[in-house]
Amino acid sequence: MTIVWHIGLASKLGYNRWFGSIRGSLSVTIRRFTSSLIVLCVALAVFYLLHWYFGATVGRLSIEGKFPPGAVLQVQVKNAFGGMRTETIALGDQAINVKKRVGTTRMNAPAASLALVFSLPKGVTLPNPQRVVNIYNVQIEQPFAGLTVVSKRTLPKFFASQQFFGKNDDFISLKGEMGSAILVSQTELPSASIAWAIWPAVFICLLFALVVRNHRLRDLPAFKDLLLGPKISSRTEFDAVNGLRGLAALLVLFSHAAPGFEAVNMGIALLFVISGFLLSKPFVLDSQRIFRWDTIERYLVKRIKRILPMYYTFIFITYGLAYEFDTVVRNVLFIEASGHLWPMTQIFTFYMCLPLVLLVTSWLWRQHRWLPVIVLSVLAVIWHQLFSDWKPYYNGRFFKEFYLYAFVFGVAGAYLHYGLLRRPKPAWVGAFGPWLLIALTFMSIAWSAPVQPPVWAHVLIKPFFAKCVVSLAMIVLCLQFADTWIKYLLANPVFRSVGVIGFSFYLLHGIGIDMAYALQTQILGLSGASERSWMTTALAFATTYLMAVLTYSYIERPFFGYRERQSNVGKA
Q1: Among candidates 445, 435, 378, which has minimal Cα distance to 408?
Q2: pTM of the shown model
Q3: Helix, strand, coil percentages in the chain from 3-state DSSP, rounded to 5
């Protein structure tokens, strides 16, 4: 009876509710313990890295002495991982008896060892009496440990070399055919106080803990926008377009970092065609809206808000901070698009031209539904034939033609997909179409990159015009069969996540490659590191992706918004 009474009482008091609250409390406790453990690991890692960086660091190095005419000094700073920072200084053409002071720029390099390499350039010959370096002092500025001065008397104790000579070993002879001498530090540089590492580590970990406890990764716009499909079109269509956009961005990255991979034109062609396709989509779905000025005005404002904040930020960081103000002005005004930014002038020009194109195609659409596709295709061919030699865009090194036909193909694709191919497809088309898309994708990528295509295929894939035609076919086929197994290949999570942040990813991929190469050479000291290697590609992808997630979430996304379903004007 007592047991039955207790069971009944427990049920009356809400045993399930009590058990659920216990389970919820346990879940919260585990989550907090996990986040605290992560913060602790981050704290230890940050402390170690800061202690390493704030330890023995070489800021600037200067040398006062008398040097052989034409001699060169190379300063080598090697860190604990084996990475090396070097700087070469020309010691001038003054006579051997002229005393002077030379120095490096600010290096700020963690130093496990320091080497000074004196040498004579190839072809410079001097008699033995002039092959002498007479150093009076070496001054090493350390950002967190003050100034270290190596005098003439302490020079042989601080540096080790077989080429010291003289009564007190205070002269250095340049021996051998190349006339060189190497001085390697044998005394450790003073280290900074541990406080330089503790307080920044505490500050960084406090910020990290606040973010971990109060912010979830899935709340970042870069991740949250992966689920926007049902709000602006459909899940499958949104994922398919982002997958293709991500593929295009990755082709550009691989072409600049991976060995033997040259598919950059394929990636650019795909990006151009996707831009024309997405921007014209809402006007194809509603052919009347292009005739309203308020719609055109909203379209132009949204285009400006979509690209200018991130583009101008990148220009300021890349060129403004380097004091290249003339380059900043030319890029800001779209007179020039330096380096890999060359597509920006083309994209912005197309933004301005698209309303005029759509005014004509919308009128043609009301006459006959096939007319826009036919006229746009003919316009693309004519433009390619007549204006391929017209190169109005300058990227700082050479002029580029205006690839209007690439964007026009995208507009034609929108009319084709949304206006003409919405009917049910025969069974054989549904079975054959995905395989055709896969064949086109792999053929175009392989023949654009490491695999040399057959001679008969050169005309089909090598020209940029042909790549645009293939890109159009890929987009239409991918959307037509977005509900099939094809989504697991071209709309996979990696492609889609890159596609959402594609604009930032494209702008920042050059910085990512430079950072990946510097990490291998200057930090890790990997032998045989190359700017074009699979290691560089992997590191560049990770670095670029992290930077693009942040810039998309906090620079791009606050300036533009999506509208529900068909009222949006596309995201390109």
Answers
A1: 378
A2: 0.79
A3: 60, 15, 25
